[in-house]
Design goal:
Length: 302
């Protein structure tokens, strides 16, 4: 076990979530990097924004949150990404994602190559791979990572912006996969795998793609984590939901934090659920830090 500070890269989309009540900075990989920073590790956002007002605001907000903008590329052709978010009565979101956004034009650079070789963990998803250019750049980034870097595929299926080929290739490159209960049957179908119970499905994914862990989030019903030797279920925390945007990304960040430190599966499960639940009580995916919540997660027994 180590208390070293780890570098965790959120690779992919950085965008603005457009809620009815206003705009919130988001994008799943960027959310993971932000939550990583709240937990005391070094979260790095590797993305791209437009040379426009929303792009400038995104960079300013990242800096205000204590994140470097050194690896956020500036695009003079494409606009900063936006997603229109509508919430149902339970705070669950429906997304309308703009196309031809800056994060679809990720470029492979010497700076990104250096970052890839420094990363202790890299989190990426399917959405940012919807364009061939960004897909190629993401794969080059993963190829450049050190052998000991932890590669996390946070599935993040957003119809119609994924294909079986993208998902399967991503699974093959990952050590850990995180998905939610709505994505699980879609993923199994895309992979041509039989269903069964949730645990059966996760174990099948674990074996077929030689994964170290598969994590399934179940909204208010907690989660299921599976490794080759263990299974841990968590019933979740009872909370007053404001919106669930970014809750899964917070879950992923806490999972990475404790997995890298050799924590037990039970500790990983409890910490990930706690951070995800806290985000669901806040507005947007990148709320201001709650020092008490973060301290409790960091101090979880290893």
């Amino acid at each position: 076990m180590t208390t070293n500070q780890y570098t965790v890269v959120g690779l992919g989309e950085l965008l603005w979530d457009l809620f009815p009540a206003g705009e919130q900075l988001g994008g799943a990989p960027a959310n993971v990097a932000y939550m990583t920073t709240l937990l005391g590790d070094c979260g790095m956002v590797a993305s791209r924004v437009g040379a426009d007002a929303l792009g400038r605001r995104a960079l300013e907000q990242l800096q205000e949150c204590g994140l470097t903008t050194s690896y956020v590329q500036l695009d003079t052709v494409h606009a900063t990404g936006t997603v229109r978010v509508q919430l149902d009565e339970e705070g669950k979101p429906q997304f309308t994602i703009n196309e031809d956004a800056a994060w679809e034009a990720l470029e492979w650079t010497a700076e990104w190559q250096e970052l890839a070789t420094q990363a202790n963990a890299i989190c990426f998803g399917a959405l940012a791979q919807r364009s061939p250019q960004s897909r190629q750049t993401i794969r080059r980034f993963l190829d450049a990572a050190r052998d000991e870097a932890l590669i996390v595929f946070d599935v993040n299926l957003r119809a119609p912006f994924y294909t079986a080929a993208i998902v399967i290739e991503s699974l093959r490159r990952a050590h850990i996969v995180k998905l939610n209960d709505e994505e699980l049957p879609l993923l199994m179908s895309l992979c041509g795998l039989q269903g069964g119970s949730a645990e059966d499905c996760l174990r099948r994914l674990l074996g077929v793609y030689d994964l170290q862990m598969v994590g399934l989030t179940r909204g208010a019903h907690g989660s299921l984590l599976v490794t080759a030797t263990d299974t841990v279920e968590h019933n979740g925390f009872k909370i007053a939901v404001v919106d669930t945007v970014g809750a899964g990304d917070a879950f992923t960040a806490a999972l990475i934090y404790h997995y890298r430190r050799g924590a037990t599966l039970a500790t990983i499960s409890a910490a990930a659920n706690r951070l995800g639940a806290w985000v669901a009580t806040q507005i947007g995916a990148t709320p201001p830090a709650d020092e008490k919540v973060c301290a409790a997660i960091i101090a979880a027994p290893k």
